[in-house]
Amino acid sequence: MENYFRYFPTSEKDESWGLTVLNAGCTQIEKHSYYPPLNHPSHHYFNWDTGRTLDEYQLIYITKGVGYFESENCSENITEGSVILLHPEQRHRYKPDFETGWNEFWVGFKGIFMDNIVAKEYFDPAKTVFNVGFNGTILSLFNDILKFSTEEKPGYQQAISGAVIYLLGLLHSEHQQDTLLEKDIIEETVDKARLIFRERINENVTPEKVAEELKVGYSWFRKIFKKYTGLAPGQYLIQLKIQKAKELLADPSKRVKEIAFELDIESSFYFSRLFKDKVGLTPVEYRNQVLKKHKFN
Q1: What is the pTM for the complete model shown?
Q2: Which of 59, 104, 191, 275 pairs with 262 at a CA distance of 20 to 30 A?
Q3: What SS3 class is residue 32?
């Protein structure tokens, strides 16, 4: 990989296209090397201690090595196949791991096209790092940008800005697929949890035990369960127990104490208080109401 960078003069006509490419390049950072390299252009230079802000967008593709990224919005480890999307006026800093170095491709750009798609929430400034893995099409587009920029043939600015738009489309598509996959995982987890709660309503089951059985962290489980169902898992379990209690109270041969025991509720006193809090009637009052209704029917 041969190190290369170029900064492009632009005209009003270029800017009227809607997206203007300002710079592009590729750099191989060897392990045990300092970053950025000394030949980094001064107006884009930064160090880890101070970071920097830009007045442009940048796409940076890491094709080899690992490192670190931090901004005012996030802090993430960078792996091979990471794409960093920088937004204007977003203070940030990044660097390769001193033991590995990395290979990077980048392109800087701005224009009303990008401003519009950010305003329409195709990209969120808080979401900076995308893990796309090795993607031959993305790598090819970066190489095309470098090739066209080297030749600087008439219309090259529009050609490389088209490649940037293609890159942005691929990045958005990859992110949408990741989001859908995460949604599938969440839905499957919640469905399994609801099934466990229903099947073991008479057992000493707790949300913490369910999370452990599903092999997920409890804080994440509680968060996604509540977001998906509108109820925290503990409240969902209580609602199931109350519904089951209503069914059991319709049987006059069952005492309230027996029902509390059957539902694994610690005491008949707590059961009565909980039932009244959720239903507005004590278990006895609810039973009398149900039996009265059945009598007249």
Answers
A1: 0.64
A2: 191
A3: coil
